[in-house]
Amino acid sequence: MCGRARCTLSPAQAARAFGFPSTTTVGGAGGGGGEDAPAVPTLHMDRFRPSYNVSPGAYLPVGAVRARAPGDDGDGGGGAEEHVPVIQCMKWGLVPSFTGKNEKLDHFRMFNARSESIKEKASFRRLIPKNRCLVAVEGFFEWKKDGSKKQPYYIYFQDQRPLVFAALFDTWKNSEGESLHTFTILTTRSSTSLGWLHDRMPVILGNKDSVNAWLHNSSLKLEEITVPYEGADLVWYPVTTAMGKPSFNGPECIKEVQIRPSEKPISEFFMKKSAAHGQSVKPDKTSPEVAETQAFRTAKEDCELGENQLDKTDKQQPAEKECSSAVKDEPVTLEPQTFYTAHNIKREDVPESNQKQDTSGIKRKIQDTEVKAETKTENTGRSPVGPVKRKEKGPKTASDGQASLLSFFAKK
After folding, report:
1. Which helix (H) or strand (E) holds 88?
2. Are 98 and 127 in contact, with CB atoms under 8 Å apart?
3. Residue 209 pLDDT greater than 80, yes or no
4. Residue 140: which of 40, 13, 26, 52 has the closest Cα?
5. φ, ψ (nearest 5 deg) of residue 382
6. Number of neighbouring beta carbons within 10 Å of residue 404
7. What pLDDT, in 10s, does the model give residues 119-177?
8. Distance CA 412, CA 405 (A)
9. pTM exceeding 0.90
10. Residue-by-residue DSSP string for 136-184
11. Which three-class secondary structure state does DSSP give residue 24?
């Protein structure tokens, strides 16, 4: 990709970069040296503004071979139409000729063209036979992405010679009949040395043979020309981030800066840790729901561990002491006065229906008391927890270790 460049070349310097002839004018009476001038026609060069920070929409000197029509500005006069090399000032950012005459122009839409697909798109395919051109700059800029930050680099030839790009041009006319010449720079995959910076780079024509092949030899396969430039003389260095603004201009744009080593983000730490365990999954932030689930799982494992230990303890104790020992540790005594004042009641005076009701009521109270005692024993934890066993219903005997009311009435 190429979206910013430096171009302060004179027309003569551009002509030499394109391989066009140039002449040297004789110096004045002051003894000064002569000035170089292109020996080919130049068109609309008054529109060119040298700049250290050129962006799409600006005018640049472009070399092409085209028919010189009568009325074109140039050094030569009119005459029969012929194809000659010319240097013409064109606007960066292709506007196809079939664009509507009243349509708003967008020069950022086609300032680059992928060389791999120019044969497939109508905007570029029809320009390949006769609308090839050359663009000369002193260097171009490319940005290296580092998270949310972008660091610009200035890329140029080590011997300071101009870079020549392969390009295509087109001519568009507005509703008033005025012509606008625009161009697009071809790009290709990045070279081996620049792959760390970006995956695309402009098609650089590094010598005269490649320049002539692109400009004059239309029979040569595009794949043989539009290849990455692998020369070791293509170098680079970081520059100020201020040149990211198109309005920032001047020698400061190409001044080398020192990059301080930035702190590595915490995400890299987790990525390295995952890679050490053979994982390539990017760490995600733990949500509160996930945290609660993990805490619940940990607590559940602790409970299961405690239950397993309790089960082992239960197996070590005899099974026949599960309930009887629990009751004997804390004997329950029933005081007769709690339920009845027995010394004032005579058996003969109580009707049989009341005796039966009292007997059943006493039995229920005794059973409830026994269940409560067993539950209390379970809560104290003095004996292994087991299922509560209810005693069978029936009159209690003296062998149970405690007196019953029926035995008290029997004595009476």
Report:
1. strand 83-92
2. no
3. yes
4. 52
5. -80, -20
6. 18
7. 999 999 999 999 999 999 999 999 999 888 899 999 999 999 999 999 999 999 999 99
8. 11
9. no
10. EESEEEEEEEETTEEEEEEEEETT-PPEEEEEEEEEEE-TT--EEEEEE
11. strand
